[in-house]
Amino acid sequence: MNMDRTLKLKLELSDEDKESLMQTVVLFNQVFNEVAEYGFEKRTHSKVSVHNATYKDIRGRHPELPSSLIQGARDVACEALKGVKLKRLPESRPYSAIRYNKRVIRIVFEHGFATVASINGRVKVSFSIPEYYEQYIDWETRSSTLRYDIRNDVFYLHVVIRTESPKPSGDTVIGIDRGIVNIAVCSNNVFFNSKEVKNTRAKYAYLRKELQSKGTKSAKRLLKKISRKERRFVTDVNHCIAKEIVNMPFDVVALEDLTSIRVNKRRGKNFNRKLNNWSFYQLEQFIRYKAEALGKQVVSVDPRYSSQKCSKCGHTYKGNRDGSSYRCRNCGFQIHADLNAARNIAQACISCLSRLSVNQPNVGISVTQDVTQ
Ligand SMILES: [Zn+2]
């Protein structure tokens, strides 16, 4: 099974290179329109027959456009004709996004640059990769689309990347970090972050505040109704997340143990918010019973240091984490902070299970383990 993702990269360019790319985009779209017109008139979307009839002529008139881009424009035009079943003429605007196939682009993610074919030869473009993109670096690059944002005068490269299936980080264990910003982050790089959830909850919080300040009888009634609605909403979200998590290809789900420890000032504000938030318990319960139904195991691990420890080298330092980003002072590893925590939770579970399996073949459901060990 293949899994595709699209990375959106904002390109940094010199004015000269920007001009080259703009002219390339315009010419590509012009060729698209010429080819589409031919196919439309001759009632064909066959790439071969359109190619034979148009390529030489176009190449002769636009020698500056690399032949791979001419072929790319032809392919896109034929696909568009096919898509509308030749019922109407597909048209490109001068700045429509253009597709680059592998032959006309080379992307070096780890060094943040790409070379892109243009009417003036290859143009080198650079981009910065947000830290959470690092998880995709070893994915296979498929097609790329170059898009010009006229309003902001910026070029974007949309890169479709592919991997065979969700990459397990640990043989059979998936670690889950539950949080405020991201409801759940899984050690296999899946984030459950929903703006919708945040917006809806903010709306309810606002309504609650308004009604509480009124304090009338009808306001109290409404308050109860709203609380019920909000709970139902959160319950639905938790059901969906739990279902997706337990259906991932892992046998063991590792969670932070939120019940074994009591509220403690030293654990920090975020942690106390986690403890006090009933929806985290609910999500856990849903994961537990859905996992059980599938014959999977749920393991609780000690959450201490899961957010401070480097999931790559094990170095534990509070200052490594800064909001949602994690950067290890020891090995330089950079990663989304919640993903780092999720990987630590998975690792803690793996080392705990391997130690336990020496002594007892049947591991119990709840195991507490210190992440620092
Ligand atoms: Zn490190």
- Approximately what portion of the residues adopt beta-strand conformation? 15-25%
Q: For this structure, what is the CATH class of the largest domain? A: Alpha Beta
Number of domains: 2
Strand order of the largest sheet: 10-9-8-11-12
**Contiguous uncertain segments of 5+ residues:** 165-169, 261-265, 357-373
Q: Helices and strands: which structural class?
A: alpha+beta
Question: What report would you give on this structure?
Answer:
This protein is α+β, with helices and mostly antiparallel strands and 373 residues long. The protein folds into 2 domains: 3-163, no CATH class; 173-359, Nucleotidyltransferase, domain 5, CATH 3.30.420. The chain is 42% helix and 20% strand. It contains 8 helices and 15 strands. It has helices at 15-42, 47-61, 67-83, 195-214, 217-246, 269-276, 278-293, 337-359; strands spanning 3-10, 98-100, 105-108, 113-118, 121-126, 140-149, 154-163, 173-178, 184-186, 191-192, 252-256, 297-301, 321-322, 325-327, 334-336. The protein has a 5-stranded mixed β-sheet with strand order 10-9-8-11-12. The protein has a 4-stranded antiparallel β-sheet with strand order 1-7-6-2. A hairpin with a 6-residue loop joins strand 14 and strand 15 (334-336). Helix 5 runs parallel beside helix 7 (278-293). Residues 165-169, 261-265 and 357-373 have low confidence and may be disordered. It binds zinc ion. Zinc ion binds at residues 310, 312-313, 315, 328, 330-331, 333.
